[in-house]
Amino acid sequence: MKIYNNINFIDKKFVNSVLAIGNFDGVHLGHQELLKKAYIFSRKVKKKFGILTFDPLPKDFFNKTDNRILNIDNKIDIVKKFRADFFIKQKFNLNFSKISHDNFVKRILLKKLSVHSIFVGKDFRFGFKREGNIFFLKKFSKNNNFKIFIINFKKFNNYKISSSKIRSLIQAGKVSLVNKVMGRPWTISGRVIKGKKFGRRIGFPTANIKILNQIKPLFGVYSVKIIFNKKTYKGIANFGVRPTFGSSSPILEVNVFGKNHNFYNKNIKVLFIDFIRKEKKFKNSSMLVRQIKKDIKVAKISLNKK
Fold it and tell me: Under CATH, what is the fold of the domain 2-156?
């Protein structure tokens, strides 16, 4: 899969392709259905298949937030499985945000990409002030010789699967439900940084990660899996401010079961499996140790079921 950071630099061989367009934040089951259908159609009409997405998310850009379900690297890793020939992570900035919905279609989809067909979700909006929608695209496609496919919402337990719903679930600690609607565990990636060694002092050394460029989960304890160098380990993690030792800025602390692993300054992936309990302040470290031992038992039961 060829990756581009800008629409302007796309190779000619990818012109007149089948293009899936959207934020695809989380690459949840609804997104996956859209990508599968786009791929199947591209092979049927013997065209290249590409994905156009935006970084940062437009909503994050305007609100000056960072609430992505996945960082861009994890998103790319996941969409590779859908056998796209190329992937465009278009930088979303002030200039790009001012492109009208009319010019987005005329200048980008038609002039630069000469799309054969596009696949979008039912709620797809685009252009300045989000004035473009599927009705505009349908009307425009009829007169400009490209096809448009609108993919309906996918449902889970009678509610619409959406990225905004998944964000709410993550912030509520409902990661097991998140994993069901995403079709895989929600994941944080990051470089392990030097901590204050609170965990090591009480017998539970941790790999510490600052969660950057991604939504933060509910403060609390989780059963997790850790991926490093293509190997998977089981463990337990706490995300929060470590109130027993005096508050700090929020950090993810991961304790890997078994022998002590040195992940310092390495990039690891942390897969959230189940929520165990909310973070709380203990009167002393002895009480915290007792609780951690209980948490580990619960985590091991949880991980053995998955």
Answer: Rossmann fold (3.40.50)
